[in-house]
Amino acid sequence: MTILAIETSCDETAVAVTKQRTVLSSVIESQINDHVLYGGVVPEIASRRHIESISSLYKKALEQANITINDIDAIAVTYTPGLIGALLVGVNFAKSLAFALDKPLVPVHHLRSHIAANYIINPDLEPPFLSLVVSGGHSHLIHVKSYTTFETIGRTRDDAAGECFDKTARALGLPYPGGVHLDKIAEQGNENAYTLPRPSVEGNDLDLSFSGLKTAVINQIHKHNQKNQKINTADMAASVRKAVCDLLIDKTITACERFNFKKLAIAGGVAANSLLRRRITEECKKRKIKLYIPPLSLCGDNAAIVGVQGYYEYINGNIASEDLNAFATMDIGK
């Protein structure tokens, strides 16, 4: 089954053509240069850039796949969660295509597609398994019961891990996107140089919290500045990175042992973090847990993962009507 997939949930415009788990083409246009001036994504600018780019990317994806639009069996699109204006660009473009071509329209949840990144390079990966989904907007522990059945067993109560990285990077004066630059400079630092908290929350002990950690880092930076003391950027970056990874790995391994998961898949933009990749690999090896991590090219937002998840949504009967809308937030299980 050949699917044309569209992704516009944040600041990457992406279109891909997939066939089951095989990627026939994948094109992405990043907006980093548009948002670097502001130190973060500006929703209005993101939406306008999607409008400007999506039509040409659609044509390019078909060309790279060496097919015509008549060879497409269905249109898949990210419809939640994300920036509402950005999502609407992709949803409306997909709806128009589906209507004009009389093709099925397949709605895809953004977090589901990130998990599906692991299907592309791991033909042996099948549910059930545990997935840690970590990005700038999400930090979730997901029980993947089937290709289209999901249960959240742990999540952040406030900020996401990626947001903690990005905001502390900005406070340290690192360029946008902060998380990537923080990871690079942290390789040169002493991760034990600064004492930082590992926040916990009441209730579900698999839930996470990064707001207090982010605040603690920013407060330390401000105190040093007020005293005209120079903070060691590499050391602080390394200390923050270690604290975030400590929290993520502790909760993930606890969930694996508590629920007897023998397969773990990492997904999302923060899955590209070098320390997280190294340490989770070591921990899983010790416990004989089969670990799946997508290549760096599939950690960020892209349409190939939307197409792969869209295939499973389609065969499960998840077809949208012409009144499909975009939603800024939605539980992965819905």
Describe this structure in words.
The chain is an alpha/beta fold and 334 residues long. The protein folds into two domains: 2-115 and 298-315, ATPase, nucleotide binding domain (Nucleotidyltransferase, domain 5), CATH 3.30.420.40; 126-296, Nucleotidyltransferase, domain 5. The chain is 44% helix and 19% strand. It contains ten helices and ten strands. It has helices at residues 32-35, 43-65, 84-101, 110-121, 161-171, 178-186, 211-226, 233-259, 274-287, 304-315; strands at residues 2-7, 12-19, 22-30, 74-80, 105-109, 129-134, 139-146, 149-155, 263-267, 290-292. The strands form two sheets. Strands 3-2-1-4-5 form a five-stranded mixed beta sheet, sandwiched between helices. A five-stranded mixed beta sheet has the order 8-7-6-9-10, sandwiched between helices. A hairpin with a 2-residue loop joins strand 7 and strand 8. Helix 4 (110-121) packs across helix 10 (304-315), helix 5 (161-171) packs parallel to helix 7 (211-226) and helix 8 packs parallel to helix 9. The longest helix is centred in the C-terminal third of the chain and has 27 residues, at 233-259. It starts with a strand and ends in a 19-residue tail after the last helix.
Could you describe the largest sheet, including whether it forms a barrel?
A: 5 strands, mixed
What would you call the shape? globular
- SSE order: EEEHHEHEHEEEHHHHEHEH
Instruction: Report the β-strand fraction as a percent range.
Output: 15-25%
In the CATH hierarchy, the third-tier topology of the largest domain is known as Nucleotidyltransferase, domain 5
The whole-angstrom Rg is: 20 Å
Number of helices: 10
Distance between the termini: 24 Å
